[in-house]
Prior knowledge:
By secondary structure, the chain is of the alpha/beta class. The protein is about 40% helix and about 15% strand. It has 6 helices and 5 strands; from the N terminus they run βαβαβααβαβα. Strands 1, 2, 3, 4 and 5 form a 5-stranded parallel beta sheet that branches. Strand 4, helix 5 and strand 5 (about 125-130) form a beta-alpha-beta unit. The radius of gyration is 16 Å and the shape is globular. The two termini are about 30 Å apart. The model has no long low-confidence stretch (mean pLDDT about 90).
Amino acid sequence: MLILYYHRVxxxxxxxxxxxxxxxxxxxxxxxxxxxLRSNFVSADDAxxxxxxxxxxxxxxxxxMFDDGYADTLKHAFPFLQKNGIPSVMFIATEHVxxxxxxxxxxxxxxxxxxxxxxSSGVTIGxxxxxxxxxxxxxxxxxxxxxxxxKKIIEERLG
Length: 159
């Protein structure tokens, strides 16, 4: 399975790092190429169900994932994906919902209403962590807390 993993789909400021992020036209071109190659886009839930059941993934399976919940990704990527019937998953660091990003303070993170809208439209919402700390730098109990607290908050907020 091919997994395309993005942080942001949006415009960039002068000198801004572009790691794991693309402009909207580049994102759309990537998805159009995959469609032209007859890729089979799968949801995160389908990928897990297939793996647990021991069935084979469809040929040319592709999973689209987004990290952190950037608001411009909501604006630029999701309408295109929805129009084309392509499933995706967004991982949320719950403590940063509705705030500016924690690294560069250049871009906003979606608020809970926007995340609910995504979830209602069929996007899988996953727990990234609570505070976006680097898990490999934490003690096992802290790791578990970061993930379980994030998951609990998302479940409470999205029902």
